Amino acid sequence: MSVLADLLATVFERRYRGATEPDKQNRSIEDLSRDLLGSSGEVSGMALARLILDRYAGMDDEAKLGFFTFLTNDLGVDPETVRNALDAFEASPDRHSYRTFLAAAEPPRQELARRLNQVPGATAQLVAMRSDLLRLTKTNSAPGVVDLDMRHLFSSWFNRGFLVLRPINWSSPADILEKIIAYEAVHAIDSWDDLRLRLQPADRRCFGFFHPAMPDEPLIFVEVALTRGTPGAIHDLLAENREAITAEAADTAVFYSISNCQPGLAGISFGNSLIKQVVADLSQELPNLKTFVTLSPIPALTKWLTAEGIALPDDPEERRQITADYLLNAKRPEGSPFDPVARFHLGNGASVHAIHAGADLSSNGLAQSGGMMVNYLYDLALISQNHERFATAAQIAASPEVTALSAARATKD
Length: 413
Fold this sequence. Notes:
Helices cover 54% and strands 11% of the residues. It contains 20 helices and eight strands. The strands form two sheets. It has a five-stranded mixed beta sheet with strand order 1-2-3-4-5, sandwiched between helices. A three-stranded antiparallel beta sheet has the order 6-8-7. Strand 4, helix 14 (271-285) and strand 5 (291-294) form a beta-alpha-beta unit. The radius of gyration is 25 Å and the shape is globular.
């Protein structure tokens, strides 16, 4: 969008506000949306888009839900038109009939979102709008079709090709650092000093994906510790009095926290690309790194144990056996692993490498998993093979040690 077009849109909007203020106050966001869909001028369209976004931002939840209901009921596809267009395409499959079918099959609310997105800064507002939609439709599933449309658009707008990987360090802008503190979802960052300990030392790294339309908003970020050997406890990794090492002295990169930052982008996968890109970048920067692992929580372990009527024993070895059995054998109805973090890493081609008792003694770690944590190994030579076997046959890659722990648990049942 040119600077001139943006300036003209601002002028047009001011005139529109002043000249038609009484009319505008009496017109609904639904009518303004219809106007935008019928607008053919770039400048007038931008002015209308701004008005709609401003109107939406001032709504309460009841009004927002009403707007989503309008998108559902009034700006969806017409089944009869779609059927007729498909029949015409089947009878004469040429460019014209196909274009007609595509136009009929796409709901007008998708075009509305595109036109809203022509306003500078609108992408972030539309992401926030989807966050509202997901929150409000937990108790009202009718606008779920609107979410499918927004997810479809966001999958294209936030394609990996548009994302920018940026290192985040102690010298990054303060507003970015504040968001890292706020968005950290795995191991809470309690203070600026706590953040400094994660970003400033030479054996620490942090990387985030950003989008050009949201340059100051991280979409997802990963925190990395450079270590000698594979760690088995998060409190050792984050201890204030730990002995730091130089990056060149490390042989292992540990992904210990991955946080999605935008609720409105739920279901848009960034983590797979993020980890692979960070592995590639770190391998190039530090060729001494030979091992890439996570130190991951097991967030659904306690939930599963409760449902199964199983209590975690006091013996650490038995705890590891039960956890191994859970990670390798506990499944959802459709056959995927019960644990969401396991689904993510195994789907990316990692393997279950090692299991640790007493590894997360925080209140959250004890509540979710009784303090258990797991290393997932990203073996660069096996990632593709592991991914294919998991995707096609739900086969879980695991180290001999983890497999033996699970087998030991099975012999006791």
